[in-house]
Design brief:
This protein is an all-beta fold. It has one domain: Carboxypeptidase-like, regulatory domain (Immunoglobulin-like, Sandwich). It has no helices and eight strands. Strands 1, 2, 5 and 8 form a four-stranded mixed beta sheet that branches. A four-stranded antiparallel beta sheet has the order 4-3-6-7, with no helix packed on it. The N terminus is likely disordered.
Length: about 100
């Protein structure tokens, strides 16, 4: 676990998480199709306000637990930056792909 208290990033959902009841934004940071670890991944709300940040795992994975709504996921890495828009109208596992470069 990181010092900021962010949950461990990885493929499997943590025990006790029910994507039928929660909004889960689950994704991967890539560059040229290859996973990018160590990227700072930021979650911005529908007005562009910063909400949360995690660091992508060695495999490029990241995850946010959010409220329903419109979100922007922005990845910042030394190899480049990228972002993706996500519309999460309700509970479920919402996949997000962010390409940097």
């Amino acid at each position: 676990m990181s010092s900021c208290g962010a949950p461990e990033q990885g493929n499997a959902l943590p025990a006790g998480v029910d994507p039928g009841k929660e909004v889960v934004l689950d994704g991967k940071v890539t560059s040229g199709g290859a996973p990018v670890g160590g990227a700072f991944v930021r979650l911005l709300d529908g007005t562009g306000e910063f909400t949360a940040e995690v660091v992508s795992s060695a495999e490029g994975d990241f995850r946010f637990f959010a409220a329903p709504g419109e979100w922007t996921v922005r990845a910042l890495h030394r190899s480049g930056n990228g972002e993706a828009k996500v519309s999460a109208a309700g509970p479920g596992l919402h996949q997000v792909a962010v390409s940097v470069g």
